[in-house]
Amino acid sequence: MAGGTLSTKSGILPFTDFEYNNYPGACGKYIRNSQFAIALGPPYFSRSQCGKIVEITANGKTARGVVLDSCPSCKGLYLTPAPFKRFAPLSQPNGLVRTTWRFL
């Protein structure tokens, strides 16, 4: 089921370099690492999720990002480096942080 509800999900929060491919994301927009952008895995992504706001909480901090891409190999979501830095340094092993998140 694509995640259009207000239910909270939990998992591990990774980040990745969205600029290395230099092609638009699944929502048709180019993504910069400085944007608060999110890619969703198959359990949650559908084209109707493009542009939706997601609230992420980790390490006692909260940030919001916008869905701009899909991540076929992801179980949950992936962030650009900009919002990830709110929760942990980019040097965090494998960029992994425990998190909760929900669609707004």
From TrEMBL:
InterPro entries: Expansin_CellWall, RlpA-like_sf. Keywords: Signal. PANTHER family: PTHR31836, SRCR DOMAIN-CONTAINING PROTEIN-RELATED. The keyword Lipid biosynthesis does not apply. The lineage of its organism: Eukaryota, Fungi, Dikarya, Basidiomycota, Agaricomycotina. Gene3D superfamilies: RlpA-like domain. It comes from the Eukaryota. This is RlpA-like protein double-psi beta-barrel domain-containing protein.
